[in-house]
């Protein structure tokens, strides 16, 4: 029996509503598989924990997580209780950084039967490779003076290692897919880092003569996600550009409640973390109508990560079938509750 030990952090808001159903789905996957078992351990770290303890996770929290094969996280953030930069940097971004989860892969594809807001979604199928450890997400900088003399400086960090790593990951991924990599740049406006980004991209692409490439400024690229998403295969982007692009990726599928993500540790020293693209959705929290598909598709990425490709593909087929049959939450036009969707996914998995 292959046992996978998973640290579960439901987190805030709808994270609490979509993580338990996704765990039910994973348990059903294990049951159907026969040779697979998930050992779940839950950690109550979120903004309420911060209010009680003054920290998002205990000092030995990372040490506790490091004993697991993976982290399965819902969402972090409750701006009514804790400023967003404190909660995110105290938990989500802390785990990404300390566990060297340097790559964030975020697929988006057209689902048959799911109403995309695009008139002609053209069967798109893309993956954004988001640099996940540096770039615009940096604590370097500060504030000085007050009033009209007030100054704020926020530095972006682009290292040779970080940029090259993200790009090579994208090219390797493209070799297993449609053989195309697009670079998200902004070298017309950002004076130092983006021309550097372009030069590294031009260097790396020479190592992959069989991969076709394109490079677009992020503004135009974002528009192309809407007007012609079918032209993309793999897109490599800095931390911030990748963040923004992947919400658009979710939106063109039909809802950001569907979009999955995987924060990948490449060196094997720490666990990887699986958490959907969306946040804690305070506007719908408590109603039981959060779309669980993002969290469940994220579970599929976790299955892939552990080599369970066939089970992962089966799960994605089942998700697609359930959506096609209209068993879905209001964000994608359905009338179902969160658990009705996950229960139907479990029911169908059992018939396979
Ligand atoms: N990775 C993360 O944990 C993460 C990601 C994004 C935002 N956040 C945090 O979440 C909080 C809210 O942020 P936001 O409102 O900008 O983004 P959000 O992703 O939480 O919500 C944006 C919109 O999408 C909808 N939505 C999101 N997930 C959905 C789902 N599963 N089903 C149906 N609808 C869904 C919401 O209702 C909302 O209208 C903030 O505290 C923010 O910092 C965390
Ligand atoms: O900015 C972040 O990375 C947090 C969230 O928006 C995400 O996409 O994971
Ligand atoms: K999330
Ligand atoms: Mn985001």
Automatic annotation (TrEMBL):
Which lineage is the organism of this entry classified under, starting from the top rank?
Bacteria, Bacillati, Bacillota, Bacilli, Bacillales
Keyword Transmembrane helix in annotation: no
Domain Isopropylmalate dehydrogenase-like residues, every copy: 5-345
Natural source organism = Paenibacillus validus
What is the name of the protein in this document? Answer: D-malate dehydrogenase (decarboxylating)
Instruction: Identify the PANTHER family for this entry.
Output: D-MALATE DEHYDROGENASE [DECARBOXYLATING]
Q: Does this UniProt record's set of keywords contain Chloroplast?
A: no
UniProt KW keywords:
Manganese, Metal-binding, NAD, Oxidoreductase
| Name of the top EC class for this enzyme | oxidoreductase
């Amino acid at each position: 029996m292959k046992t996978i030990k998973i640290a579960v952090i439901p987190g805030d808001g709808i994270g609490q509503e979509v993580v338990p159903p996704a765990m039910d789905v994973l348990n059903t996957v294990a049951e159907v598989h026969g040779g697979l078992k998930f050992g779940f351990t839950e950690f109550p770290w979120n903004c309420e924990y911060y209010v009680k303890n003054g920290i998002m996770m205990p000092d030995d929290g990372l040490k506790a997580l490091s004993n697991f094969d993976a982290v399965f996280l819902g969402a972090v953030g409750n701006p009514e209780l804790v400023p967003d930069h404190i909660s995110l940097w105290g938990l989500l971004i802390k785990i990404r950084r300390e566990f060297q989860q340097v790559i964030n892969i975020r697929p988006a594809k057209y689902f048959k039967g799911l109403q995309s807001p695009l008139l002609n979604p053209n069967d798109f199928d893309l993956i954004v490779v988001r640099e996940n450890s540096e770039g615009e997400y940096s604590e370097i900088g500060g504030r000085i003076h007050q009033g009209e003399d007030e100054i704020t400086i926020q530095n972006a960090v682009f290292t040779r290692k970080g940029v090259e790593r993200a790009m090579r990951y994208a090219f390797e991924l493209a070799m297993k897919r449609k053989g195309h990599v697009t670079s998200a740049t902004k070298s017309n406006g950002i004076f130092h880092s983006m021309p550097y980004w372009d030069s590294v991209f031009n260097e790396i692409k020479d190592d992959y003569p069989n991969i076709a490439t394109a490079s677009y400024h992020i503004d135009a690229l974002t528009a192309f996600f809407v007007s012609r998403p079918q032209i993309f295969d793999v897109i490599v982007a800095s931390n911030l550009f990748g963040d923004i692009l992947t919400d658009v990726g979710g939106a063109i599928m039909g809802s950001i409640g569907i979009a999955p993500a995987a924060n990948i540790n490449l060196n094997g020293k720490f666990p990887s973390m699986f958490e959907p693209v969306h946040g804690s959705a305070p506007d719908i929290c408590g109603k039981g109508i959060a779309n669980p598909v993002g969290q469940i598709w994220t579970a599929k990425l976790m299955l892939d990560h552990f080599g369970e490709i066939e089970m992962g593909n089966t799960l994605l087929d089942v998700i697609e079938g359930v959506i096609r049959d209209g068993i879905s939450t209001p964000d994608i036009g359905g009338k179902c509750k969160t658990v009705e969707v996950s229960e139907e996914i479990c029911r169908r998995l059992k018939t396979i």
